[in-house]
Write the structure tokens for this entry.
Amino acid sequence: MSFPAPPPESLPHPPRTPRPAAMELADSPRVAALEAGAESTEAFWDSVRATGTPLVEPDPQGSPDHVLVTFLWRGDDRVRAALALPNKLADPRDPAANLMRRVPGTDVWHWTLRMRTDWQATYSICVDDGDDPHAPRPGERTYWQWLRSRPRVDPFNPRTLPRRWGGVPQSVLQLPAAPTAEHLWRSRPGVARGTVTEHRLRSELLGNERRVWLYEPAPPQAPGPARATGADAGPGAGREAGLPVVVLFDAEMWQPELDVAALLDNLIAGGALPPVAAVMPESLGSERRYRELAPNEAFVEFLRTELLPWAGKRLPLTDDPARTVVAGQSLGGLAAVYAAVSAPGRFGNALSCSGSFWWPNHAETDGEWITGAIREHGVPDGVRIRLASGAQEWVLLPATDHLCEALAERGAAFSHRRFNGGHDYLCWRTELADGLTELLGRPAPRG
């Protein structure tokens, strides 16, 4: 089967879709008690310092599946505004909805949401300290954009994640029922560590050069935890047949910032994965990333005929598509699916987190090109697709649902999980761990 060529490039951003429903804002009983004079401001902050932020309180409506989440900022009279920005819980068309309010006569700024207990997100608090003489004035057209450019880490929350391509880190919130693979992303005593090496690769097809990280698993150890080997690891498994391989996009975030090697070490040591190798190319800035990861025949050829053969000279890699996963998030999730359906002889598995299936975004088409192509041409035999999307990603959800419908109509082997989160590496860490386990550790269910 020959998959059709993608259309020309489009606008380098998703459609400007308004949020379909307003956030469920609420009032914190704890903040209300402070406002009523039940405790002093200093006592309030002493308590916050001891317990950390955001504040999490029982749902006043009595639901065991919901809580109130209150974001706090400590700011004196010089502060003109503070904006709480949890991932994908802000509508650019209504920025004032995320403004924190100040308890009169105090330095307490607050903003409260009612959320399900399985929600997790990174967040920033953007603050106008009144210290920039060139700042726009509140109410001016450029003020909101300027305010969003001043993110801060929550000083009462020690947990952070790096921000892509540098910048101020983001604070981390995980409610009690949120799925997490947190323990798998830390190096643990007694777990053998694989080897990570950084290289530079010149592509003649793409006319550029990039860093590539290679991960090779530690040599097998015995005795130890049961590993997925032999029949459990699939036909032809074992180093003599070449290691299963994961091609993971956006490596400049996944490896040096998030240490995906620790995840692979732990999954292998725990028996969730057979020993696998990873080939991880970086993205070369946002503009080049958009051109390469939006469906691009030349980029797939780079993966198939340049990247993997080059990596195969350095690692013992399989050439079996059934034991090869191509993985990414956002545009990388779209690219992963496109690589699998357009080059099934090399990529038998696609792992997509929050895929940009709305693409392309231009007036001449209705968008969702890959869904239309799959609906018309189907998915090649042997290709398996694992999708994940966030319940707060309102721009992506319709396109993801339409893709799932098309995959089901064509009888494709796929699965889809919707997590309660946004467009967020915090969520994608769990989805990457679970997706790799599904695709390489055990058979995937059919749609």
